[in-house]
Amino acid sequence: MILQERLQSALEELGCTRIPEVLHHYAEEASEENISYLEFLDKLLQEELAAKHDRFIKMKTRLARLPYHKTLDEFDFTFQTSIDERRIRDLATLQFVEHQENLIFLGPPGVGKTHLAVALALEAIARRYTVYFTTPHDLVQDLQEAHQTNTIKRKMRKYIKPNILIIDEIGYRKMEDTAAHFFSQIVSERYEKGAIILTSNKSYGAWGDIFGDPVLATAILDRLLHHSSTINIKGESYRIKEKKKAGFFKQDEAQK
C-alpha cells in the first residue's frame, strides 16, 4: 500500500493523468502474461501519450471556435457530384497548409462549403496545426472594437498567427469602407505566411460589390489567388434535400 501511494504521488507530481487509471490493470496483465519490464513501461507511456494527444486535440478544437464537428467521412460526395472527392482527399494531406497556400470554396448556400472547411480544419488540428474559425461579420466587428480601444495590433495577431484562418461565407452582406480595409489587412499580413480557407456564395466577379471598391477587391483577390486552389460547388442544398426527404415540399405543393 505504501508503494502504491508513492507511485500515485509521483505520477501526480509528474503530471500523469492516464497512467494512474490503467496502472493496476497493466500490472495484473504483466504478472499474468509474464510481460517484460520494458514492455510494461512502454504500454503505460503509450497510454499517457495517447491521453495527452486527446487533451491537446480537444483544447485546440475548442480554441479554433469551429461551429460544429463534421469530418470528411461524413460528407456525402455522392450527392454533390460536382466535387472531385480525390481532390478533396488530396487537400486533406494538408500540403496547402505546409506551403502557406489558400483554399477557396465557392457555391450557393447549403452545398457543403462550411462542412468541407471544418473537416479540413479537424484534419489540421489532428496534425497539430493551429486553426481559427470566424465569419466576416465577427472578424470585422472584433477589429472595429479593437480599433476603438487602441488594441488593434494585439487583436490582429489572433487572425495572423494561426496556421489556418477560416473565414466563412463572404458575400452575405456588403462591407463598409473601414471593415473592407481591415479584411484587406488580414489577407495582406497572412500573404505567403499562413493559409486561409475561405467560403463564399459569390463569384469573384461580384467581390467588387461586397467590398464596395473594385480596386480594393482586386488587391484582395490578387493576394488570395496568387497561391491558391478554388473549388466550385454546383448543386442542390443539403438542407433542401433533407426537407424533400421529410416530405415538406410535397406538403407545400398539396396546399397550393
Key features of this structure:
5 strands, 11% strand, single chain, alpha/beta, elongated, 256 residues, 5-stranded parallel sheet
Q: Please, could you describe this protein's structure?
A:
The protein is an alpha/beta fold and 256 residues long. The protein has helices at 2-13, 19-33, 37-64, 85-91, 95-98, 113-126, 136-148, 152-160, 177-190, 207-211, 214-226, 238-246, 248-255; strands spanning 102-106, 131-134, 164-170, 195-200, 228-232. Helix 9 links the parallel strand 3 and strand 4 (195-200). Helix 7 runs antiparallel to helix 8 and helix 9 runs parallel beside helix 11. The N and C termini lie far apart (78 Å).
**End-to-end C-alpha gap:** 78 Å
What is the number of beta strands? 5
How many individual helices?
A: 13
Strand content: 5-15%
Low-pLDDT residue intervals, each spanning 5 or more residues: none
Mean pLDDT: 89
Radius of gyration: 24 Å
Question: Order of strands side by side in the largest beta sheet?
Answer: 2-3-4-1-5
Major β-sheet annotation = 5 strands, parallel
Structure at a glance:
The protein is α/β, with parallel strands linked by helices and 256 residues long. The protein has helices at residues 2-13, 19-33, 37-64, 85-91, 95-98, 113-126, 136-148, 152-160, 177-190, 207-211, 214-226, 238-246, 248-255, and strands at 102-106, 131-134, 164-170, 195-200, 228-232. Strand 3, helix 9 (177-190) and strand 4 form a beta-alpha-beta unit.
